[in-house]
Amino acid sequence: MPILARMLPAPLTMEVRRGAIAQLGTLLADSRVATSGRVAVAVGVGQGDRIAEVIAPSLGEAKVLRVADGTVDAAVSLGADLRKGNYEAVIGVGGGRTIDATKYAASLAGIPMVAVATNLSHDGICSPVASLVYEGGKGSFGVPMPLAIMVDLEFVHDAPPSLVRSGIGDVLSNLSAIDDWQLGNVERGEPIDGLAISMSRTSAEAVLGRQDSIESDAFLTVLAEALILSGMSMVIAGSSRPASGGDHEILHAVDQLFPGTSNHGELAGIGAAFCYFLREDAHRLGQVTDCLRRHGLPVVPGDVGLTTDQFTAAVMLAPSTRPGRYTILEHLRLSEPEVRARVEDYVRAVGS
Questions:
Q1: Could you tell me which residues are annotated as the binding site for NAD(+)?
Q2: Which domains, ranges and CATH numbers included, belong to the chain?
Q3: What is the mean pLDDT of residues 59-79?
Q4: Which residues contact 101 (CB under 8 A, 6 or more apart)?
Q5: Does the keyword field hold Oxidoreductase (predicted)?
Q6: Binding-site residues from annotation
Q7: Which side of the chain, N or C, has fewer Cβ within a 10 Å radius?
Q8: Contact, 124 vs 243, CB < 8 A?
Q9: What is the pLDDT of residues 132-165, one digit of tens each?
Q10: Does the structure show a pLDDT above 60 at 2?
């Protein structure tokens, strides 16, 4: 009897604990990563240089390359350096911008990438997507997922708390994204992937009800694992669908209209909560807003300095940021006055 199965890509290794980067040298000795040991280390601003110093003794003659920022230009420049150096692999050390730039650069150079995360700001740690800034705004680019992932909790504890909280908002927004995907299935017959949905929902639910804080190793471990699972759900789905719905459309619109307003996860959290308000799902809205508040995340537009008119403009623009994606925003097709009224009602309902 024939056996049918599908092969699921996954990282060679995943380490989430204090002292994880001490194993980096052992990982890179694996011939599946680099046969000759010719490896580059890409570091960003912040803790990148510090970690590069810590891991240098175990990396031999690895070359340290600087990543200026999270722009397409910086990623392309890094990719050119990787090609010129004939490296077999690159280690991206830093936060979300550095890892995304390194992922894109590695794809341009055609070599594997190992992610060493110094904060937990979003699910790009393991996702097949790189979010990069370019002249016209911010875009998402398809890339291979990292070959291996390390999260050292000692460095995460040293990261700005706002960046760690951002990861909470990003993973919570998966719940809204899943509901949008299922809505697309019901209304438009869009195929859904049950395994991807299960992984995405599991990652969000793991964080949703926890009562401990980002000061706890136990919480940070769960958050890191949740973000990695979220990224893998996108690999399985072949798109960002299980982790990006109307919530992310709103955040991308805010980024376009009012750049620098807030970070990715904070805007994703607000977007998810607002989408649940639009769905009139009071139970899930309460769960999401309670979790956001418990961890000191913004809940209403005013919390990140946006007026009602500005947030209304973002919601109106949101569907155009992901053409063809069907979410609660496309389903309701509200006019500008209707959106403004919903935004005002949302603020009254949850702003206290």
A1: 96-100, 118-121, 127
A2: 13-158 (3.40.50.1970), 161-351 (1.20.1090.10)
A3: 85
A4: 42, 44, 67, 69, 70, 71, 74, 75, 78, 92, 130, 132
A5: yes
A6: 96-100, 118-121, 123, 127, 170, 248, 264
A7: N
A8: no
A9: 888 767 778 889 889 899 999 998 998 899 989 9
A10: no
